[in-house]
Design a protein that fits this description.
Blueprint (H helix, E strand, L loop, with lengths): L8 H4 L8 E4 L9 H8 L6 E5 L3 H5 L10 E6 L11 H7 L4 E4 L2 H13 L3 E4 L13 E4 L2 E7 L3 E11 L5 E2 L8 H7 E11 L18 E4 L8
Parallel strand pairs: 1-2, 1-8, 2-3, 3-4, 8-10, 10-11
Antiparallel strand pairs: 5-7, 6-7, 8-9
Helix pairs in contact: 5-6
Amino acid sequence: MINKVVGDLAAAMAGIGAGASIMISGFGNAGMPKTLVRALGGMDLTGLTLIVNAIRRIDECGTSLFSERRVDHVVTTAFRGPGAAPASYEDQWKRGEMTLDIVPQGTFAERIRAGGAGIPAFYTPTAVGTPLVEGREQRDFNGQTCVLEEALTADFALLRAEKADRYGNLHFRGTQANFGSAMAAAAETTIVEVAEFCETSLRPDEAHLPGIYVQRVLQAPRWEATP
């Protein structure tokens, strides 16, 4: 019988090595896999690529990934929180120690979805006329200028869900779903932390993401919300 449940963090994070590309779910605090991110921070890996909606949420998990300069590249939609002082990753970017791809949020979501669907690239009018598209391929469609955006894929995806069954079927709570389903489809290996396991299979109406996209599931505590 298929059983994707793992008993500890070592088993959940097995195989993640230096230079890995990692998608991390989360919109604000909802869906942020804090247990898995903290475990990643303790693995002493270098040369990582992180694909995450808001980069500051990684620091809020209490990791040393940026302070120890273990991230080489970040794809994100939000580089600094409102009113926040410059963080260590901003200084690294200014010194050329880390590269950065800032993407409009809708484009971010679509690049991940395209990666999971096997679509290598697409055109969008979003961000045309801004510094974000300088030097990029642009093309007119019916009189509207669009920019070419490449799909995003990754070696691993780290997700948070509310519950799962042994087959890896997931149930998200509210906005916890955010980018999780798209990231699971776009990654080679999907690792999920959940608050609870179901003794029986999730009902079809409960399963928001089918287990075919999930390789490992770990039970982890719920975390208090971060503003």
